[in-house]
Design brief:
With about 120 residues, the chain is of the alpha/beta class. It has one domain: STAS domain (Transcription Regulator spoIIAA, 2-Layer Sandwich), CATH 3.30.750. The strands form 2 sheets. Strands 1-2-4-6-7 form a 5-stranded mixed sheet. The chain has a two-stranded parallel sheet with strand order 3-5. The protein starts with a strand and ends with a helix. The model has no long low-confidence stretch (mean pLDDT about 95).
């Protein structure tokens, strides 16, 4: 079971994970949730990790898969409020800068909006 809170904005969903430990099984549940959200309404995603204090070492791989699926649909994915211990596990198990990570939700929104503008400009060329 994975407890989350979803807040839907105009061009993206904010998914706040309400767990202190994110396991590999929970990360798979997150993938399933995102797949369902994207089926109903394809939007970019902001994943708020403010409550997550620890993650399994396999979770960053799930994050990379989620990132690739989201960008494959021409949408953005940004993680925010990442605790130092969680960031350490992500950094140790992914390529540098493989994921968009911001300190605040506001900065995550900015990235989503900037990438949306970039995609629109690319389509106009």
């Amino acid at each position: 079971m994975l407890k989350v809170k979803i807040d839907t904005k105009e061009i993206f969903h904010v998914i706040c994970i309400e767990e202190t430990l994110l396991t590999a099984n929970m990360a798979e549940k997150l993938d399933e949730l995102v797949a369902k959200l994207q089926t109903d309404d394809e939007k970019s995603l902001v994943i708020d990790l403010k409550n997550v204090e620890q993650i399994d070492i396999s979770v960053p791989e799930n994050f990379i898969d989620l990132h690739n699926k989201t960008y494959g649909k021409s949408k953005s994915l940004v993680f925010c409020h990442v605790h130092a211990a969680v960031k350490q596990v992500i950094d140790a198990n992914t390529e540098p800068e493989a994921l968009n990570i911001t300190p605040t939700e506001s900065e995550a929104w900015d990235i989503v909006q900037m990438e949306e503008i970039e995609r629109e400009l690319d389509m106009d060329i």
